[in-house]
Design a protein that fits this description.
The chain has 20 helices and 27 strands. With 604 residues, the protein is α+β, with helices and mostly antiparallel strands.
């Protein structure tokens, strides 16, 4: 199993750990400290050794930050986690705050006192984030103080060791472009930006650039590392040598100067002393990296990581790999759905048992490298927690006459998958069917959208919500995220969301996953991965349009669809999609699954 269901979350530890941190802050003559969820790479995926926010508060979500002052403490999370945070955190110690409605900077302005010294670890806060924090402290008459040595680490006595996942070479045949060609192409981008070098801080950018994969974080094949990409010449890769076999080290030595991570800051200072212009992405690079260059006399040029967009637009080889991975995954998923429908009639199933069985079906493909995230296996009211993670304490038996939501994905060497289906168990209430159909209408609106070049995800996000809005409903997460190629299941810069302002381009992969969540009752989400296609001419039109093609191939539960709520076009889309699922997945499964699949994909 690639996922475990043992929970280390214990809200009761928050009080003692917060008290220990406060003692350490007092010893350092600090009035408070910021504890972000991210690590030195500022990403979503952090190893246990860097899970400071979870250790301190108990909160296990993928985004958040805590502020600990002598008398006050708060934890800030977004709308995905408003329910979860209250279950995992001692709210008598850490007051839950909405990250969007009350940003930490706003809270600091009203809570800090004049003369307060607020500490922060400059490696764990981005350049742009640090600016906002400094402005807030200034407005409150306080001071933001960079610390040397994280105070949380000083009181975290059983902190795990940093990961040492082995690095492997990702084949050029799957990447679609040799690493040497990528390095030359991306180096030229740095030169075009009038910089001497760009500092890569995101491990997925580094994995893509050098065509390598690792295993330093759960479920995502990332080699935690940094790199300096010059406008011309050989890059420098800063990675723990214990992760490299002799063969891998020799391969990488042909592409880059391979050095230990501790050499990064001195290397930046050296560049600063030479008067170099060093480019950093202010939304991803730690503030301490900029300081290393500037304090030595160099110049910082701010700009977006040039690899982020290049990585998002998949090569033909990566697109072919994604299709192959989704066919393989679709066959495993069909077997799972057929099993679920039979097994739920034979006796009670629970959330953990279902998640284990789905992973087993994927493992039986013989190609599963990992799952792409901990499965969200959620029965009844647990599904209303949109990022719910089942453990042995929360594990719920799937009740009769209810909805069951399963959000899961797989990592194959040729592609990354992510799919959510909401399933009927017994006789489902009419309200649940109505909510399901409203979500389905939003899913279809995205799936069938046509849009001109330059359109961003923010411009089409409302399509997924309009029918929910008409019913006075909504959901508090984006409609879709980018997806990597045997990399991060959440990949930027593209996304379908109110904040998704990057233009969608052919070759990008995004999820299409509107939902609805009724606290204490049920949750619904329907998710496919979509490939951005086109541009294609439209008969009678004046401009070619982009569109989407579903990569995910799995039935949508027909038992939950209120046909009368669908337009003729929506009705036809469901039938077309199901016909495609049967045509492409049917030949890949056994006869029993095929029989089930034929019924599950029958025309409405």
């Amino acid at each position: 199993m690639f996922q475990t269901f043992d929970s280390m979350i214990d809200p009761s530890v928050g009080s003692a750990r917060c008290a220990a941190l406060r003692q350490e802050l007092a010893r350092r003559k600090l009035d408070g400290f910021l504890v972000p969820r991210g690590d030195a790479h500022q990403g979503e995926y952090v190893p246990p050794s860097d899970a400071r926010l979870e250790w301190l508060t108990g909160f296990a979500g993928s985004a958040g930050i805590a502020v600990v002052l002598a008398e006050d403490a708060a934890i800030f999370v977004d709308g995905r986690y408003t329910i979860q945070v209250r279950e995992q955190v001692d709210t008598q110690v850490f007051a839950p705050m909405h990250l969007i409605e009350t940003p930490p900077a706003d809270w600091l302005v009203t809570t800090l006192k004049p003369g307060h010294k607020l500490g922060y670890d400059p490696m764990l806060h981005t350049i742009s984030g640090t600016r906002r924090l400094k402005a807030a402290c200034t407005a409150a008459g306080a001071e933001l103080v960079a610390v040397s040595g994280n105070p949380v680490d000083a009181v975290w006595h059983d902190r795990p060791a940093p990961p040492l996942g082995a690095v492997v070479i990702h084949p050029d045949a799957l990447a679609g472009e040799a690493a040497s060609d990528k390095i030359a192409r991306m180096g030229a981008k740095v030169g075009e930006a009038k910089a001497d070098a760009f500092v890569l801080t995101q491990p997925d950018s580094i994995a893509w650039l050098f065509n390598i994969r690792g295993s330093d974080v759960a479920h995502t094949p990332l080699p935690l590392s940094f790199a300096i990409l010059p406008a011309s010449g050989k890059p420098r890769l800063f990675i723990d040598g214990r992760k490299l076999s002799n063969a891998v080290r020799d391969h990488l030595a042909g592409l880059a100067e391979v050095e230990e991570p501790a050499a990064l800051v001195p290397a930046l200072a050296e560049m600063g002393r030479a008067g170099a212009s060093v480019m950093l992405d202010p939304d991803w690079a730690g503030d301490s990296l900029a300081s290393a260059v500037q304090d030595a006399g160099g110049t910082i040029k701010e700009g977006a990581d040039p690899i982020t967009r290049a990585k998002a637009v998949k090569t033909e080889a990566e697109i072919a790999g994604a299709r192959a991975a989704h066919l393989r995954d679709g066959a495993a998923y069909a077997r799972f759905l057929a099993w679920f429908d039979r097994a739920i009639l034979d006796g009670p199933l629970d959330e953990i048992g279902v998640a284990e069985r789905l992973e087993a079906f994927r493992a039986e493909t013989g190609a599963l490298k990992e799952i792409s995230f901990d499965s969200i296996s959620a029965a009844g009211p647990n599904a209303a927690i949109c990022h719910y993670r089942v453990d042995r304490k929360s594990n719920r038996v799937i009740p009769p006459d209810s909805l069951f939501l399963i959000d899961s994905g797989a990592q194959y060497e040729d592609g990354t998958t992510d799919i959510t289906r909401t399933l009927a168990v017994g006789a489902v209430a009419d309200e649940m069917k109505r909510h399901f159909t409203l979500v389905l209408k939003g899913h279809i609106a995205i799936a069938t959208a046509r849009f001109p070049k330059g359109t961003s995800g923010a411009q089409i996000d409302a399509l997924a919500r309009i029918d929910l809005w008409k019913a006075g409903l909504d959901f508090d997460h984006g409609t879709g995220h980018g997806v990597g190629s045997y990399l991060s299941v959440h990949e930027g810069p593209q996304r379908i969301a109110k904040t998704g302002h990057v233009a969608l381009e052919p070759g990008m992969i995004v999820s299409n996953e509107p939902g609805y969540y009724k606290a204490g009752s049920h949750g619904i989400r329907i998710e496919n991965l979509e490939l951005v296609t086109g541009p294609d001419e439209i008969e009678g039109g004046e401009r070619p349009m982009l569109g989407f093609q579903a990569l995910t191939l799995a039935p949508i539960d027909r038992r939950l669809i209120v046909k009368e709520m669908l337009s003729a076009g929506e009705h036809a889309w469901v039938d077309r999609y199901h016909a495609r699922v049967l045509a492409e997945i049917g030949p890949l499964v056994d006869s029993d699954t095929r029989s089930w699949l034929e019924a599950a994909t029958a025309p409405l």
